[in-house]
Amino acid sequence: MTSDRVNGALVIRTALAAEAGTIADLHFRARSTYYPDGVPQADVDWTDAWRGSIERTDGRVLCAVERGRIVGIASFRTPDGAPADQVKLFQFHVDPGHWRAGIGTALHSACVAQWRADGRRTAVLDVHVDNRRAQSFYARQGWIPDPENPPAEGDHHLFLSFAVPPRE
Asked: What is the CATH code of the structural domain delimited by 3-163?
């Protein structure tokens, strides 16, 4: 999968296993912006986790590349036990140094195009309650609170859903 921004500087493509370390670093930098007391699971080998996500046959990891550098990532797949027409967006991050440059919007559009091509009708995600920036971004893209999954008391995540638009 490839997608180009108007000026041609941004390419969105499938991530490579060899890029797992770079993706893990971006993931950590982005998550560090919204956890007030430090990133949980900081001791997890995120490089290995990302390599596993990239190599999964039942999902996909897309990366946004600008001038040869990965500046955004998205990971999604059908969660265990979910209907075949549902997809879960597990990770979606843009490098904080590249916020407000249209990268997230382009990456989200590429995800939606892939979901549509895969026959998905609904997408779901969970977002940390302290991540107001992401919540605003998702709302602008058309995500709404998931009526099937209201937040549990004490949970630190909001659950959102997105109706994947049909093919045009």
From this structure: 3.40.630.30
